[in-house]
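Troubleshooting: if your tokenizer reports a length mismatch, compare your output against this known-good record of 426 residues.
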Amino acid sequence: MALSLQALREMKAEKIQAARALHDKEGFTDEDQKTFDAFMVEAEAIEARIQNELKLNGLTDPAQAQHIAGLSAGVITVEPKAVYKNLGEQLLDVRAMALDTAEAPQARDRFQKVVNAASGASTGIDSEGGYLVETDKSSSIITNAIETGVLSSRCTRQPIGANADSFSYMAADDRDRSTGKRNGIQVYRKAETSTMVTSGKVGLKERELRVEDMYGLIYVTNRMMRDAVALAEYAKRCLREQLAFKLDLEIFQGSGAGQCLGIMSSDLPVTVSKEGSQTADTINANNVVKMLARFYGDITKAAWFVNQDTLAQFPLMTVGQMPVFIPGGSFANAPFGLLFGRPIVPIEFCKTLGDKGDIILADFSQYLLVEKGGVEEAESMHVKFLTDEMAYRFIVRNNGQPLHDSPITPLNGSNTLSPFVMLEAR
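Known-good structure output:
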């Protein structure tokens, strides 16, 4: 019977504990060294099995992998009891530890439980000036921030483990389908005695995404520090808003240098030309029809992302006598209406009416977000000393980029296709 991921981790912990006990004893002999080395070799072998189990489940996130492995082995995973009732209580302990107040010893005891629960974590160590946010609250902060984001909530998310700082994947290198090949491979038919023709080489290339630090600052009055519940809700709300806005902004227009590579900065989008006699600062039905013709992605996940200034362009839009715009109201997922059956989503990142980027037909499931670990927190009483405030800094590690780096040239037709389609400036 296959061992569960939890059982493998327990076996590894036993080997490490035995090696440590041997190493710490007095009179360490050459024979002890051989035994110690054997324990470490066994621990490394078990770790290799743990990594294989993660790969078999298609996961790199330890918490998810452990949960699924437990289910597949018929094991019910019991979540550890939370150390703190809410984030505010932990922030108060962070303050006590950082300032070394009378409550610091008890705060360190509680915080150590959080560190012990963070399997494989290498951040959040007191001597480095940071403190890990408890696992369940950390997950809640990140999840709420991404769900709040208009763009990040639609992206493909990929967690990575504690021992990695990047994610590599294979993407199609051959984006030109005009020769009939797909990813560099051609398929043929042959007569009974004829010789087979080579099918070519697979056109794949490795793409890598390295996590970068993203941080937010929150200022809290010392009066608010007296109420842990109020502090918790305030901190979560501020973090959710700050992280969601910053991540969406980078997904849209990030430079890719130490931050996400935004769609506006990548080579994946295609641009549709304006009409020859088109009035400046307008969007017409011909523009929208031609944008649909250049789209290649999951149309069920696509939407029209627009600047608020463009909304007046759609209600009277028709093709012949047929309206292509359906007002919102009864559509829970499309309060601003539907255009050719896909929702209109106003976002402040889109450019103003008439500029390139004022309307984008996009499937953001073709954008990859990688995430590592939880949230690291540190504080300072000196940043806002004169106003009697504490400054809390929260760091998350993530990055993002479009899944591919160029549009597709189809088998027939001269126009390239993309999951991100824009309209030329008018």
